[in-house]
Specification:
With about 220 residues, this protein is mainly beta. Strands 1-11-12-8-9 form a five-stranded mixed β-sheet, with no helix packed on it. Strands 2-3-7-6 form a four-stranded antiparallel β-sheet, with no helix packed on it. It contains two helices and 13 strands; from the N terminus they run E-E-E-E-E-E-H-E-E-E-E-E-E-H-E.
Amino acid sequence: MNSLGKVLNGFEWDYEGTIQIMRGTGYQGKGVSRTLFLSPKLEDIPEQLFALKVSQSTNPAKAGKLTFRYFSFRFDKDAKFENLAPSEVTMETPLADVKNLVVSKMGNIPNAEISINVTLHGKFTNITCADGVFSIYDEEKFKSPDPTKSGNAPYYVKSDSIIRVHLKGAESQGNEYIQTTLSTTSVSDDIFAKSQAGKVWGEDDGDSAGAAPVDSTPATPVW
């Protein structure tokens, strides 16, 4: 299996750990995009999630170069996450070999952080808790005249909550994507916190804004 084929055909994987959902601008500057970030151990990541693509970025540091579809990394906690692939690999490289190469290069770097990034499709995402099914975001339930807040629930998943995420490969009109199912053995009161804006002296409290989009564009190659 390499990056030229249907890498998600029959793919399923379960992750259990902390999650983060970040909101950004949709394709061509229209609408909203949301990305689910997972933080598994490097060696536990399935080879399919090391699939590559040719970057369509306008950034000269990335344009036309091979990047990871789902995998990103950084070597310093204050740096941006990057997704450039090692120079040794091509689209024809077996994904098992891509994984082994990444593990060998990054496994001994003490400060290395990794992330699996999954685009969330659709207008809502739910999570099944011990006490019911709850919305994480929903563009029908949580409407807002402010496009930067549309769909935002008045609460969020705590950063230390342990969530089970089931990933499953799917296809629509010839394009592969990953379906996600979120669940937890905890009750909703344990994993959710209310969104609150910090007070500004001399002003009334305001609504909290949606999370800012993450810029994962690297400045220079790292491999």
